[in-house]
Amino acid sequence: MNALDPLLTKTVGGSVGQTMSRLEAWEKACGAAVYTGDMVLPGLLHGAVLTSPHPHARIRGYDLTAALALPGVKAIITGDDVEDRYMGLCVKDETVLARHKVRYIGEIVAAVAATTPEIARAAADLIRVDYEELPAVFTVEDAMAPGAPVLHEAFDAYAKIYDASTRTAPNELSNSRLVKGDVAAGFARSDVVVERVYETSAQYHAYLEPSVALASVDGRGKVTVWSSTQSVFRTQANLNECLGIPMAKIRCIAPRIGGGFGGKSESMVQPLAVALALKSGRPVRVVLSREEDMVTQRARHPARIRVKTGALADGSLVAREVEAWFDGGAYADDSPAVMNFALFFAAGPYRFDDVDIRGHAVYTNKLRSGAFRGFGNPQATFAGECQIDEVAEALGMDPVALRLKNLIEPGDRWIGGQVITNSGLRESLEAVVRESRWHERKTAAKAAPVPAASASGTRRGLGVALTAHVCGFLSTGAVVRLAQDGSIALNTGAVDLGQGSDTVLAQMCAGALGLTVDDINVVAPDTDASPYNSGTNCSRVTYMVGRAVSIAAESVRAQMAALAAGMLDCPEEEVELREGGLMGVRGGNRTVTFAQIAAKSLWFADGGGPVIGAGSVMHNEPLDPKHTLLSGMVSFDNVGAFVFGAQVADVEIDEVTGKVEVKEAWCAHDVGRAINPGAVEGQIQGGFVQGLGWALTEEMVWDGGRLANPTFHDYKLPSTLDVPHDIHAIVLEVPEPSHPFGAKGIGEPPLVGAGAVIANAVAAAAPRVRKLPILPERMLRALRFGEDGVGG
Amino acid sequence: MHFHEPTSLDEAVALLASGGARCLAGGASLVPLMTAGAMRPEHLVSLRRIAGLDAITVDADGGVTIGAMATHARVAACDLLTGGNAAVREAAGQIAHPAIRTMGTMGGALAFAEPSADYPCAVMAADAAVVARGPLGRRTIPADAFFVGAMVTVLQPGEVVEALALPPARPGEAGAYLKFSRVDGDFATACIAVRLALADGAVTGARVAVGGCAPIPYRVPEAEMALVGAPLDPAAVERLGAAYAEAADPPSDFRGSAEFRRMILPGLIGRAVARAAARLTGDDR
Amino acid sequence: MSGPMVAVQMTVNGEPVAVATVVERTLLDVLRDDLGLTGTKNGCGMGACGACNVLIDGVAHRACLSLAVTVAGRSVTTVEGLAEGGQPSVVQQAFLDAGAIQCGFCMPGMIVSATELLANNPRPSREEIRVGLSGNLCRCSGYVKVVEAVELAARRLPAR
C-alpha cells in the first residue's frame, strides 16, 4: 500500500486497512455501554420542559405559583432567569430558552427540575405563560414578502461569521453568490438549455438516542456536563456564550453517543441542564422525549432550488445557473453555512465554464433547520443530478455517457478555485456501471418499453448519480503518550457518535507505532483533558484527526528512537520501529521494548521525562477570489479534501399506489484508503438508507406552524422491510496525498447521492417527480396527471 | 391508580361498572396513552388472568370463536382461520410489528376502533360478530353494527369485548386482506378485506370492507350485490372499486390526502378481490 | 402519579426480584430506574422503535408498552441476561463479527429480537430475518450488516 505514494506514513503491522469490530462493540452488545441517560448522581434531579404553543408571540410574563407549590419542585427557569447572551454557529441569535419572544411552536419557554420526572412534568404543565400572539410566516415566500412579520428585530446587532450586507429583506438570513465566467454568454452559445425547479422537505435526524444532558456543579462553581453531543468543545463554547460561564469553569464529557448525524452539533439541552443545576444546587438530568426532541431540536433544511443548464449538441456542458432558497426556521443555527455549502456543490463535479449560483437562507416561524449529514449538499445534488439526467434526455444521450464526457478530472479546478489533486470519480462511475450491468439493463429496458398499464401493475427503473463532497474543515489536535508499560494513550477530543472513529483513530495510531489496537488506550473526550477538536461532523474525523494523530505518533516515535539509540548504543538513524512494541537496530537482532524505553524516560536521570507527542492541524486552502467571485459567504478558508463517488439504484414503482421501492443499489465511493473497510461499508450502507428515507418516506409535515407528525408512529423511518438488502458498497481507494495514511472521510457522501439516484431511477420509468420525498401520492400524481410535485 | 386482576369476566364487568375504570387488554394502545399523560384512569382492570379468554375454538356449527385476549401473533398463526376467514388471519399478521403482535389483542384492537387499524375492516368483511359482556349480560353485535365512529364503538360503559365469532369456513369461499401503508408496520393508508364465494365461475357472494378511508370501516352492499351471479370480469371489479371510492369519506393527513385515498382504492380493491379469487381458482402462489 | 404501590415479584435474567411500583410505570421504567438494568433503551416511549425489546417468558415484548404490574410472576430476559458467564451469546458474537454495531442504541432491542427469532426458527431465510427484525429501527446501519449478523449466528447455532 505504501508503494502507492511516498508521502504516506509508513505503517508497521496490520492495524491499518483491517476490518475489525468497534472497540466498544462488546459493551454495546451486552447492554453495558453507558449513555448519558443511563447515568445517575447522588441527589439527582430530573428536568422537564414546557414548549411554546404559538408560532410567534411576545412573552408578557409567567405565573409559576402553582408549579412552585408542587412538592418536589426544586428549580424553575424561564426567560427571566437568563440574560441577553446569545449563542449560535453562524449568527448568535439564540438564548438558553425563549426570552421576550417565542418564534416557533415547540420552542422551549421554561424548564423545571424536580425530584422525579413525573413531578417535573406535572410542574411544567402548571406553568402559565402570558403570550401576546403575533402574525407568523411559515414559508420562504411569505417570510420574504414586503411587510412580512419580522422574526428577529435585533438581527443587525447579532454577532455573525459572514458578510450579511447582501441581505435584501429583514427575514433573509444570508444571501450569497458565486460567479465564474458569464452564464448569459454560456446559455447563448448552448444548443440545449434546461431549466427546472426542484424541492426537498424537512427530514428529522432521528438518532435513536433522544437529546440528553446531565449537569452538576461543584463547590467552586465548576460545572461538569455529560451529554449526547458531537463535540465537547462546541458544547463548552455554547455554554460559555449563552450562560456567561468562563470556560475554565465548564467541563464537558461525552460518554457513549446514540447517533448524531449533525443534529447534536449545537447544544440545546445542555444549557437547560446547567441552568437548572446552578439554580437548584443539585445535579440535573434533562432527557427529551422523542416527541419533544422532534419539535424542539432541528431538521434538514427544506429547499427550493431552480437550476438552469446549457449544453452543446455534442454533450459538452457549458453553463449552470442556480438559485436556491433554504428555509432556516426560527433560528439561524448553521443555516448560512449549510446554504453556502449547497452552493459550493450546485454545479456538481462537472467542467462548466460559466457558473452563476445564488442562495438565500430565510427565517420562518418553524423549527430551526441545521446541520444534517451532507450539510446542504444532498439538496444541491438532488437538484443538480436530476438536471443532468434531464439534459441527457434533451440531448438524447445516455446519462452515463453525458457524465463521463463532462466529469471533473485531476488538475481541474472546483468552483472557488481549488485544484482537484486526485479523484476516483471516473473509477466510481465505471464501477457502478459495471457492477449494476447498466448497459445490459438499459438495452433490455429499451427493447421492452413500459406499456401504458403493465399487467403486473409495477414498473422498474434504473438511475445514476454522481456525488462530490469534501471532508475536513476547521482545527483539531491529538496527544499521544507512552505509558509506563509500553502501551499508548491516544487523546483527541473527537467524539465517536457510533460511526467508529475511536476504532479507526486507534488503528491509525497503532499502525504508526507498530502496535495493535489493544495496545491503544483511547481516552474519552473531555474538555478538561483532551486537545481541542471542533467536532464530529463534515466527514472530518478520519481525515483531520487522523492527520493530527499521525503527527503526534510520529513525534512519539522520534522521541522513542532517540532514547532507543542510547539504550542500543547505535546512531539514531539506525534505529527502526518494529512490530509488537519494539525498536531495534537496522540489520541486527538487538531490540528494546516500548516498556523499557518508557522506563528509561520516566525513571532515569538521562531519560528526558515522559514521552508525549502532540499534533495540531488546521486545513488551510482558501477560496480563490480571482477564480470565482464570491459575496455574502461564510468563511471557506479550509474546505478539505474532495471525496467523489457514484451510485446506481434500481427501483420498482407500484402503478396502483405510487409506492416506490428500491430493489437494489450500488454505491461506489473513493475513500482514499479504507482504514477499516468493514466500517466504511457500514457508513455507505447506513448513509444510503438514511438518504433513502429522505427520498421516499420521511417528511416533517407542518400544519401551519405545528408539526403534524411529531412521533415515530407518524413520521416514518424505513425498517428492514422498506430497504433492499442488496446495497452494494464498493470501496475504491485512490490514496489522498494530504493524509498520512491516504484516507478520506466517508460519513456524508453515501447520503448525498441517494435522493438524486432514486429520483433518476424513478424518472427512467415514469414521469419525473421533482420534489422529495417521492411519497406514493406524489408518484401517483406524476403517473396519472404528469404533475412533478413542484408545479414548475 | 388502582390495579385489578379479576379471574372471571363477571368480576371484571363488576369492577368496570365503577366510574373511572378502564379495561386493560394487551396494553399496546392504552399504555402509550398513559405514558404520554393522555389517559389517567382511576382503576385499571386487567383481563389477563381470566382463564380461557384467549382461547381460539371451533364452534359446533364450524364457526371459529376468538377470545378477546388472543394476541395478534396467535391469530396470525391460527390454522383454523381458513377460507373466507383468511382475511382476519392475514390482518392479524400485518398489525404493527412482531414484538407488538405478541402483546396486542383482538379484543383490545376492536374496542379501540382506530379507523386505520387492520382488524376492523377484516372482521366486517368476514361477517363476524362481536360478543360483548356487560352489566346487562352478554350480547352479540354484528361487526357491521359494531363501529360507530373514529375510536368509538357501540360498547356501553362497563361493557367489554369477550370474543369475536366468525362464521364457518364454507367450501367455495376465500378471503383476502390487503394493506397499503407508507412503510411496513404503519397504520394503513387504506386497507381492504374480502370474503368471496364462487361457484362454477360465477360469484355467489361477496363482502368487501375498506378501512382507513372513513371514520369507520365500511361496505357498499349494492356494489357487492352487483357482482353476484356473474363471473368476476375486470369491468365488474372496476365498477366495484369506483363505488367504494365514491362512498369513501377519507381523512387528509400525513398518510395521504383524501383525494389520494380515493385514487388508490379501486386498484387496491381489484388486487384484493383478485387475490381472493385466485385462491379459489388455484391460481394463488 | 399517585395511588397505592403494588408489590411485583418476577424473575429478571434468572434472578428473582421484588419491586414496589405505582401502576402507571412500565417494565422499562422498573428495569432502568429500579433495577439498574440500563441496557434496555427508551427510544420513543410508544412502541414504535423496538430499542426496549425484552423477552417475557421467552417472547419478545416492548418493555415500554408493558406495565410492570402485568409482568408479575413472569420471567424477563434483558440484553444483560443474554451472555453466559461473561461470554457473548452466539447471537451477540455474530453481531460483533459481522460489524453490525454502530452507535449501539438500538442494539439491545435488536439483539433481543434476533435471539427470539433464532430460538423459534434456527434456520431462517433472509426474508424471515427481515420480517423478524422489522419492528426494530436502526438509524446507523441500513440494516445490511444487521441481517448478515443474524445469518451468521444461524450458521453457527446447532441445528435442532
What features would you describe in this structure?
The complex is a heterotrimer of chains A (792), B (285) and C (160). By secondary structure, chain A is α+β, with helices and mostly antiparallel strands. Chain A is 27% helix and 24% strand. Chain A is built from 20 helices and 29 strands. In chain A, the strands form 7 sheets. A 7-stranded mixed sheet of chain A has the order 3-5-1-12-9-10-11. Chain A has a 6-stranded mixed sheet with strand order 8-13-14-15-7-24. A 4-stranded mixed sheet of chain A has the order 16-25-26-29, with helices on both faces. In chain A, a hairpin with a 2-residue loop joins β27 (702-703) and β28 (706-707). The model of chain A is unreliable at 1-7 (pLDDT under 50). Chain B has 285 residues and is α+β, with helices and mostly antiparallel strands. Helices cover 33% and strands 25% of the residues of chain B. In chain B, β8 and β9 form a beta hairpin. Chain B is globular and about 60 Å long. Chain C has helices at 27-34, 90-97, 107-120, 126-132, 144-156; strands spanning 6-12, 15-21, 53-56, 59-62, 75-77. In chain C, strands 2-1-5-3-4 form a 5-stranded mixed sheet, with helices on both faces. The interface between A and C is large, with 54 and 54 residues.
